[in-house]
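B., you asked whether I could sanity-check this one before it goes into the benchmark set. Here's the sequence:
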Amino acid sequence: MRAIVLSDSHGDTASLERAIASVGEKNIDMIIHLGDIARDVDYLEMMYYPIKVVSVVGNNDFLRSGDHERVITFDNHKIFICHGHTLGVSYGTEKLETMARAKECEAALFGHTHSSSLKKCDDGLIVLNPGSVSRPRGTKPSFAVLETDGGKLKAAIVDWVL
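And here's what the prediction gave me:
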């Protein structure tokens, strides 16, 4: 299975479309959006039905109710997703990692910083920020891909040009 992980699109649906096209819509089983801006999720749900779209709200999703964090299942793998602002990810991922471990997740995905990062902790926890497809900070525009291969969860960041 394959999921595309997006965050911080801030209304730039054209960048969302280009990111999805670069992976190939037919090659995607799930779209994960990590917040900012929630109306982009409505657009993804409409444009890419029947692909499952899961999301959380971010700090700029003022008029939208929804979860700031949640646990999802991706091909039998538990994944903690959040925007990250409520867990202080701008100052480090310790709280995020603690929360993901407490919920017995294999991966913790977050946005908010607009900078992509990927690390695998000693205990195997994957900590992933896909960056921003439209407003990167200090990096190129980016998104991430999650895949399962032989029962293992794998993650990669994809940098690209607008």
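One thing to flag: DSSP finds three helices and ten strands in the chain. Otherwise nothing jumped out at me.
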